[in-house]
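Sat 14:20. Reprocessing the chain from the morning session after the first attempt stalled halfway. Input below, unchanged.
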Amino acid sequence: MTKQPISVIIIEDEKEVRLGLSYIIENTDGFTCLDSFKSYEEALQSVTKPPDVLLSDIGLPGMSGIEGAKLFKRQFPSTLIIMLTVYSDDEKIFQSICAGASGYILKKAEPARIVEAIREVCEGGAPMSSEIALRVVNAFRTLAPKKHGDSGLTHREEEILDELVKGNSYKSTADHLNISIHTVRFHIRSIYEKLQVHSKSEAVAKALKQNLLP
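Finished this time. Tokens:
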């Protein structure tokens, strides 16, 4: 059976950037650009079929990318969201993760990196530009310090959560910890239950905000 291409919708107010991203995605094997919009106001009124991935600018006129991502995720919970932005501000990164974003890539990234990020997020990863990942790890652990151990997670669950924080996919996590993907998924369900979250991005955000990892 032929594998379906990864479907993408773009929300970007700058026309040249929007058209450039559309062209790159549409002309890359294994991808299709379903549509592109200059605002969330347009997208939320027009989109009826959820894409696999939403590639969203964060600094939009009108409704912000952060607020729009929340509404889009509520309307299409299966869609994975990657923020594409010029910002590297800690608070905006954190707000994006809390809004349901699964990845955060700077606009200056090479086109090949953006395509790679889309593929990566569909494989269970949490792609971030390296400088953003460094800011996440260094800054968010101190936002709301919490005594280690309060989460009730087991050592193995902490190891798996740490892999997710680093942006690793389930397969990479399984390889790094020398366990099966089935075991990873089993522990993920337990992590979600203990942290009272419903997605990987929520788990990562909570782990970083509350300093749950050693």
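The two ends are 45 Å apart (CA to CA).
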